Amino acid sequence: MRFWSRMLLSLILVCAVALLSAQQKKEPEKLVFNTKFGNVTFLHAKHAERVNGDCKVCHDKLWPQDAKAPLNFKEGMHKPAEAKKISCAFCHVAGGKSFASMGNCNKCHAKPGAKS
Ligand code: HEC
Ligand code: HEC
Ligand code: HEC
Q1: Which of 4, 33, 36, 114 has its Cβ near the most Cβ atoms within 10 Å?
Q2: Which helix (H) or strand (E) holds 106?
Q3: Mind listing the domains of the chain with CATH numbers?
Q4: Each residue of 60-109: pLDDT tens digit?
Q5: How far is CA 95 from CA 8, 36, 105, 111, in A?
Q6: pLDDT at 116 over 80
């Protein structure tokens, strides 16, 4: 009896692991975030390359590996994010690794648009 319940348990475990790995998402080349201010194309592969492939810089500290999860960089969140150095503003902030939002809207947003 004990033997069979153990067998069953390991069988369930094997199935669960197989299912989980099948559901693992592929690392994206790029992600497009649709906004009414102009779509933002995030070059995922290029960004990963810039940190020498160290996924931990962004995952899961800034975002989970899920393109449907909130970015926390919506309208009105650029400045608060910069203040806290979170989301894209972990790097895209004055004095950071890359350009800040202010004056650089069209480096991220497809349509050149309003100032902040
Ligand atoms: C580092 C890249 C980057 C820069 C620079 C940037 N944005 Fe954004 N912006 C984004 C991303 C990414 C989103 C989508 C966020 C989300 O989906 O949570 C966004 C969303 C927005 C939205 C929300 C639109 C909607 O559909 O709700 C507005 C408005 C906006 N940005 C305005 C601006 C303005 C104005 C500037 C310049 C002062 C600017 N952004 C600079 C990346 C950027
Ligand atoms: C510079 C930051 C950054 C780095 C580094 C990074 N990612 Fe991502 N990744 C993102 C962002 C942003 C998203 C979208 C998150 C969201 O929409 O909330 C994402 C999403 C993903 C997704 C989900 C794709 C989907 O279709 O749902 C996977 C898988 C992923 N990343 C894998 C990786 C792997 C593997 C590495 C390391 C080789 C890596 N990422 C490095 C920023 C990064
Ligand atoms: C780990 C730091 C880091 C994070 C986090 C990060 N970026 Fe960047 N990003 C960079 C660097 C470095 C560059 C190169 C910029 C330069 O040459 O000034 C860059 C460049 C860009 C560019 C110009 C196109 C390109 O890739 O060369 C866009 C657009 C951009 N980032 C959008 C985003 C958006 C949107 C987010 C959030 C979803 C984000 N970045 C998060 C570091 C980062």
Answers
A1: 33
A2: helix 105-108
A3: 26-108 (3.90.10.10)
A4: 999 999 999 999 998 788 999 999 999 999 999 999 999 999 999 999 99
A5: 57, 28, 17, 25
A6: no
For the CA of 57, the nearest atom of ligand 2? 5
* Torsion from C-alpha of 20, 43, 61, 82, nearest 10 degrees: -150
Residue of 91, 107, 109, 111 to test ligand 3 pocket, by largest number of atoms within 8 Å of CB:
91
3-state SS string over 38-90? CCEEECHHHHHHHCCCCHHHCCCCCCCCCCCCCCCCCCCCHHHHHHHCCHHHH
> Residue with the nearest Cα to atom 12 of ligand 1?
40
Tokens of 92: 């895209």
Close Cβ partners of 28 (under 8 Å, ≥ 6 residues apart): 44, 45, 67
Ligand 1 in reach of 87 Cβ (< 6 A)? no
